[in-house]
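Page 42, continued from yesterday. The earlier attempt failed because a stray header line got pasted into the input along with the sequence. Redoing it now with the clean sequence only.
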Amino acid sequence: QVQLVESGGGLVQAGGSLRLSCAASGRTFSSNRMGWFRQAPGKEREFVASIVWSGGNTYYAVSVKGRFTISRDNAKNTVYLQMNSLKPEDTAVYYCAAQGGRGLTYDYWGQGTQVTVSS
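This time it went through. Structure tokens are written below.
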């Protein structure tokens, strides 16, 4: 089993920055992905960004590309999401997720951290 704990959320003004962290414990798989998702009130959960543990290949949703950067520290089993130029529409609960051994779906989820961007 993999346990994920997010941190770094908070309240920030539009145009500001936050860095989220996701610490993973238990068994992880270097060939698989860690991802960030978010869910705003009344909306479905949506993909934000992901990274492959071993090679570091990254993927971004169009809505955040150029503003957000995902990175990882493999030795610490930690993934980061640097969020710059934040907009009110970025307000959501942000969740960290990890793929299991099969590498097909995101099987493990954190509790989430609230990000609120004021106008």
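Notes: The longest strand covers residues 18-26.
Reminder to self: strip header lines before submitting.
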